Amino acid sequence: MKIDFVSDVSCPWCAVGLKSLEAALERLNGEVNAELHFQPFELNPQMGPQGQDILEHIAEKYGSSADIGRSQEALKARGDALGFRFDFQRRSRIYNTFDAHRLLHWAAEEGKQHELKNALFSAYFTEGKDPSNHEVLASVAASVGLDEKRARQILASDELAREVRERERFYTGLGIHAVPSVIINDRHLIQGGQPPEVFEQALRQLAGGSDG
Predict the structure, then answer these.
(1) Which pTM was predicted?
(2) What is the reported pLDDT for 138?
(3) Which CATH architecture has domain 2-208?
(4) Residue 72: which H helix or E strand, with range?
(5) Measuring CA to CA, which residue among 107, 108, 87, 124 is closest to residue 10?
């Protein structure tokens, strides 16, 4: 079973969605043989190199930041239930994530994409690190066993930029404008940070049918 997980590393509900999907796959161990691929999506492709204060960004994008506290409480509760820690006190800015997606594209070729994705989520949401900073990205890549020197080479160039942009255009061309979007076997779409039970039920049904 092929699973394409379309997401951004600065999207908190993407972190929740991935942990939910992982929990579902663990429950289905032996029932479903899944290949997980992480596909790029940028929530803020025009974001400058300095990033932007989160409250300011949300107010500009959605008209108000009044509900951010409630949203963060909900995210923290969901994260805690899934074994993922959100530390919103340490995450005060939102950043451009294009270079992170370039490293994820490379990590797929190295068989380390899943590990890097989780490490990037933790670096940003738990540790409050800047996922656009090349030092941060190279360090995170090294932490999951990727070649740090090679990571730095990629980051210092425009290598894989074309490939990442092509993947981004492909998924927006399919009508993906919100993440996380989970596409199963190129046909079935599940959107949002769903609980594990939703993924488990969908995967079990598809595995039991002709798409499994």
Answers:
(1) 0.94
(2) 98
(3) 3-Layer(aba) Sandwich (3.40)
(4) helix 68-82
(5) 124
